[in-house]
Amino acid sequence: MTVVHHRGDGVVERHMAPEGLTDAVTELLAAGHRLALVAGHDDAERGFHVAYAFAGPGGARTELVVRVPRGTPAVPSLAAISFPAGRFERAMHDTLGIVPTGHPRPRRLVLHDHWPADWFPMRADASPEARFRPDQGTFSFVPVEGQGVYEIPVGPVHAGMIEPGHFRFSVVGETIVRMKARLWFVHRGMEKLFEGRAPADGIALAERISGDTAVGHGLAFAMAVEGALGLEVSEEDRLVRALLLELERLHNHVTDLGAMANDVGFGVVNAHAQRLRETLLRHHARLTGHRLLRGGITVGGAVLRAPVDTELVGRVAAEVAELVDVALGNAVVVDRFTGTAVLTREAAQNMGVLGYVARASGLAHDARLDHPFVDLGPELRVVTRDEGDVMARFAVRAEEAAVSARLVADLAGRLGTSPGSGTARSGPAPGDAGAGVAAGLSLVEAWRGTACHRVELDGAGRLARVAVVDPSFFTWPALPVALADTIVPDFPLANKSFNQSYAGNDL
Amino acid sequence: MSAVEVAGRVLVAIVQVAVVTALAPIVMGVTRQTRARLEGRAGAGVGQPWRDLRKLWRKRPIRATGTTAVGVVAPLVLLASGLVAGALVPLVVAAPLPQVPGDLFVVVSALLVGTVALALLGLDAGTAFGGMGSSRHMMIAALVEPTVLMAVYALSIPVGSSTLSLIVAARRDDPATIASPAGVLAVVALAVVVLAETGRLPVDNPATHLELTMVHEAMVLETSGPDLAWVELGSWLRLTVLLGLVANLMVPWGVAGGASPGALLLGVVALAAKVVLLGAALGAGEVAMAKLRLFRVPELLAGSFALAFLAVTASYLVA
After folding, report:
1. Measured in whole angstroms, how far is the alpha carbon of residue B38 from the centre of its chain?
2. For the residues A99-118, what does the mean pLDDT come to?
3. Which member of A270, A463, B85, B247 has the greatest number of CB atoms within 10 A?
């Protein structure tokens, strides 16, 4: 039996019995919706509920909510119809102890094997500290056998300034037969840390989910809270938010364009890209008081400490275009980029890949277009490529940097001298408005792809549950797929061209 | 040969080794500094390699469990092979020692001993990276050898001897042979393999931190302290000696014919100027270069082999 509820933030919430879930999801996926988030909630003595959030065409957002009894916590597994659903279910099993019935590979995902098997940190009654123990199992790889196959383990500690991740390659000669990545070394329990905070105190935490995505996650969190509380944000503040989002996209794209050139030994492009990045970061520090744009987003508003220097941003964009020309003018660079680590459109579609990785494989996913919070006008252009190789990802990011710079100029012009309202507001607590809990869902096109937050506030207006999905969660599994037939010395380049977040994935 | 003459030749060899050893870190410093400046970076300064060595010598080496004597001996063998090459190649003086073969075949063999020592060093700790580096290193070495032999053969035909001192002296005394098609082709072929042999772009990226792309650096990842200092100095020596050889083949002037103090001094100054200039040119060239895909390296080296082969053909047909 399904109960449909139209929420204040525009989300259609459908409460249903677990038996109907598979059919409902199949129907939604067939209608062009994609799974954006799965969040399990502990309702203490009332059991659990699991919310499956979908983003659909035309900005439609749908949530399927299923109740799960406390005694036998289980949901039917959706792994057979959706690859990302299978991963969400494994994460939920690790942290909340809800069993996905019929999952083909119900292995642990988030918690490594030294975490106790019967300790579920997201449960309300979980003891604050786990009793760690020696690894109970080894990280299971599919062993590749045959003459001349050997394994290369890399990481989790790397030589450069890279986040921790362990990669294990099965290699014949120099060709990668299979690669398996083990992440979750920087699992900090972010979602648990949100619980019990006032929404305004959650911003600082959200900005630290992934350091380079401060605006993306800060904004996604703020919008989810505003959705739950029914807060309206002024046009002016929404313009400031869009501006900050594009500035963040620009500085990250500039950094990575240089880093990709550096990975093929073309250091001169990197040296100049880092100089341009530094120019932008110093500009950001004047703008929000933090080099990575922390502090610009508030719940209910946004604030700038200084006007945007559009001339500086334009100059940087022109120099970036020149650097891209220099990089692509080198025959060896073009040779290294072209045809390396191809992610086909079909694979990208099936795995639910997001962001520039999806766009380089021909999928025009962009929440700025699909779920806009402000009209970006004709300057917004979604850049796509069909090849799916390193070159396509490089080209997409180079063009997106140019689009972002134009958007910054346009938005700054529309804002005039307004610095944003600077207000941090909080609406009436849901309890005051007569409701028990209030939920909000948001989708924001952060620079890596669509970030999704789902917030539940308790009657007193405190954060009861914050579910966070960084686009990296969707895109990481596509990296091993793209590596088929790639040679070992091209892996760092392929990895850099994806450049997914470890912290955002591991939470 | 009188005892005085022998003593003079030994003195020459000692001077050469001392000069090359002193120069090697500076050449490396010049190369890195040139590249840094041209890329718009400040750079660490020309003296940084010497400061690095001083730092490493003060440290205590840390050796992984399970490593053998190879970890201790291989760096010294690599260093020794560089020093022997420094004594044999006509860098300051081009006068052959009758008792010691100054053949390029001997020089290449001496360097190959160092190459093998380095590959064994990479395998010693038993890590995946070291083995990977050693395997790539040997692949490149195997492709480099035929080119070197071909190029030497081409150079030795006009002189009628494969003794390096005689080849350099002949080119100095008869500059027309430098510009001969065979001579130019052979030196270009040799220059390409020098880049490959010493782990420079476009074959290997000496500045990378990415373990999976490394060749030379992968082999020395487990080496530290004085062991690492010997490996670094040995590698720089190899680069300097080979650059000096290419420089003296291209511009043989200034190379002393005997052991008189004035000629020696001129030879030292000329060598220093030539290798520093060539080092700077190497750094400048690397700015405009990216690293080849590993499987394109054989194509590059096959190209240099073709040049060497053409040089041999040309020396029969044109000369």
Report:
1. 24
2. 86
3. B85
Residue of A nearest to B288 (CA): A266
The pLDDT of residue B17? 93
- Distance (Å, whole) CA A294 – CA B146: 59
* pTM of the entire predicted model: 0.90
Residues of B in contact with A487 (CB under 8 A): 293-295
> Does residue A76 contact residue A22 with C-beta atoms inside 8 Å?
yes
Place of tokens 């406390």: A70
The secondary element (H helix, E strand) that includes residue A495 is: helix A491-498
Which residue from A211, A390, A214 is spatially nearest to A293, judged by alpha carbons?
A214
Q: Which candidate from A160, A332, A488 shows the least CB-CB separation from B292?
A: A332
- The one-letter code for the residue type at A28 is L
Q: Which residues contact B265 (CB under 8 A, 6 or more apart)?
A: none
Tokens 């072929």 found at: B189
Joined together, the tokens standing for residue A186 give 């920087």
d(CA A292, CA A273): 16
In angstroms, the first-to-last Cα distance of chain B is 34
C-alpha of B105 from chain center? 14
Candidates A154, A157, A166, A268, partner chain B, best to mutate (most B CBs within 10 A): A268
Inter-CA distances, A192 with A68, A128, A398, B209, Å: 20, 10, 37, 36
* Phi, psi for B184 (deg, rounded to 5): -65, -50
Of residues A200, A188, A41, the one with CA closest to residue A111: A188
Distance from CA of B196 to the nearest CA of A (A): 15
Residues A62-92 have pLDDT tens digits of 999 998 888 888 899 999 999 999 999 999 9
Q: Chain B contacts of A333, Cβ < 8 Å?
A: 290
B163 has which bridge partners?
Answer: B103
CA A74 – CA A43 distance, rounded (Å): 15
Of the candidates A162, A393, A139, the one whose C-alpha atom is nearest the C-alpha of residue A260 is A393
Give the SS3 label for residue A417: coil
The candidate with the shortest Cα–Cα distance to B136, out of B242, B218, B222, B75, is B218
pLDDT for residue B97: 67
Helix, strand or coil for residue A87? helix
- Comparing alpha-carbon positions, the chain B residue that sits nearest to A491 is B212
Quick one: which H or E segment has residue A239?
helix A235-263
H or E segment and range at residue A93:
helix A83-96
Nearest chain B CA: its distance from A489 CA (Å):
4
Are B37 and B280 a contacting pair, CB within 8 Å?
no
Nearest-CA distance B20 → chain A (Å): 28
Q: Do A266 and B289 touch (CB under 8 A)?
A: yes
User: What Å distances lie between residue A492 and A42, A165, A351, B298, CA to CA?
Assistant: 40, 13, 22, 21
Q: Which of A176, A262, A277 to mutate to test the interface with B (most CBs of B within 10 A)?
A: A262
Chain B residues within an 8 Å CB radius of A160: 209-210
Write the CA distances from A433 to A229, A436, A460, B75, integer angstroms. Answer: 10, 9, 10, 76
CA–CA separation, A5 and A11 (whole Å): 8
Write out pLDDT tens, residues A126-175.
Answer: 887 777 877 766 666 667 778 888 888 887 888 777 888 888 888 888 88
Query: DSSP labels for A328-384?
Result: HT-HHHHHHHTTSS---HHHHHHHT--HHHHHHTT----HHHHS-SS--GGG-----
Residues on chain B touching A268 (C-beta within 8 angstroms): 38-40, 287-288
Q: What integer pLDDT is reported at residue A137 of this predicted model?
A: 66
On the question of pLDDT at A435 being above 60, the answer is no
